[in-house]
Amino acid sequence: MRFAWKVFLSGILVTVIALSLTAYWLTQAAFGTALSQEKQKALDRMRMLSVVVESMAAEYSFSSEEAELAGVMRSAATGDFSSAALFSKDRRALYGRAGESAPMEELFEGAAAGLCHVILARDGGYDMHMLMPVQLGVATGYLYLAADVSAPFALSDEMTRTASLITCAAAVAAGAALVVVARLLTAPVRALSAVARAFSKGDYAGRAEVRCADEIGELTRDFNAMADSLEGHMRELAQQARRREDFVASFAHELKTPLTSIIGYADTLRSRALDEEERFRSANYIFTEGRRLERLSLKLLELMVLDRRDFPLRDILTGDVRERLTDALEAVLRGKYGVTLACALPEAAVRSEADLLQTMLVNLIDNAAKASKEGQTVTLTGRCCPAGYRMDVADEGAGIPEKELSRVREAFYMVDKSRSRARDGAGLGLALCDAIAGVIGTELHIESEQGRGTTVWFLLPYGEGEADAQ
User: Which fold has domain 204-308?
Assistant: First the structure.
C-alpha cells in the first residue's frame, strides 16, 4: 500500500473514531440527563398520588370498605394518573389493573422495601412501571402507576441519527482535506523516488530538493550526500577504466614504430650476410630498443593507469636525443611513408625524462610523417632561447584547419580520418604527447597553415650548468 493511501486511510479512521466516540459520549450524556428527569417526574407523580390516596382512605377500614376504596381510586386516577391501579396486601386487584407487560412479581418483591420501578419497552415507546406500598386506613395495600418515558429514548435515537450524518459529512470533508495533505506530505518522497529511479538508470547528476526540515528533509539530505559519494566513486571508476583503456591504446600505438625497426634489423640479421660491425650494430639496436620498450611500458603504465606525475627529471644531451631518433626513425620513415627525416639539434643539456621525451618526439615525428606526402621532409630543429631549449617538429603536409586545432589533442580524434586509417593512425599520438608534455614540465604549441604544413614546438628547461651558460 502506498504511503499516501496509508496517510489517507489512517486520517479517515482517526476522524471517524474520534467523531463516533464524541457523538456517543454526547448522546449518552444527553440521554442520561433526559431519562433521569423523566424518571424523577414519574416518581414525583407516584408519590403525589400515594399521598392523595392515603389521605382519602384514612377513615376507611380496608377489610369492610373495598367499594369505598375503589371510589377513592376513581376520584384520584384521572389525567396523568389514569393508569393507576390498587392492590391489596395479598396482591389482589382492588381497582384497575397493571399493564400487560408489567413485571408484577418483580415489582411486588421490590415494593416490600419501598417504591420500586422498572422501565420496559413497548410497541412505539417505553413505559416506567412503579409500585409502592400505601396505608389504606387501618390496612396496607399497593399502589401501581405506569408513566410514558419514551421522550429520552426518542431523543437518543434522533441524536444518534444526527451524529451519524455529521460523522459521514465530516469523514468526506476530512477525506478531501487528507488527499491534499497526503499529496503535500508525499511530494518530497515522490521527488526522491524519481531521482532514485533516474540514478539507477545512470543519471548520477540528479539531486532531490530539500523542501522541509523534518525527517523526510533529513532523508533527502542523506540521499543527496550518498548520491554525491556514489557519483564521485563512479567518476573515479570511470577515470580508472579510461586510463586503463588509454594505456592499452597508447602502448599498442607506441609499439608500432620501434617494432617496425626491430623487425627490420632482425630480418637483416636473418636474411643477409653482414660483417661483424654491422651484425653488432643490428643486434645492439634490437637490444637497446627492447630495453627501451620495457622501460616505456612501465612508465606508460604509471602515467596512464596509476596517473603518476612525479617522474624524476635528469640532464640529457640533445646530441644523444638526435642520435637515438635518427637510428630509430630514419629508415622507418623512408620505408613506410617515403619521407625524409632531417634533424638539426644544436648541442645542449636539457632537463627531462629521456624515455618519455623520446616517446613524445617519436609520436610528433610520426604524426608529421603521416601528414606528409611521399618525397617530403619532416624536420626536427632545436635552438637555444632565453626561456629554454626550443624544439620544433615541422612537416610540409596539408596543414590543419583552424576550427580543428582545438580538438587535435583529444584522444582518437583525427583531422583526415581516411588518410590516418590508411597509414595505421589511431588518433592517439598528440593526446599522449600532450600528457607526456605535462609530466616533463612543458607545453605543446601547435601552429598550422593549410597548404603549407604544421609545426609543433615546446620548450625544455636547461640542465644544470647549461642554464648559467645561457
Answer: Helix Hairpins (1.10.287)
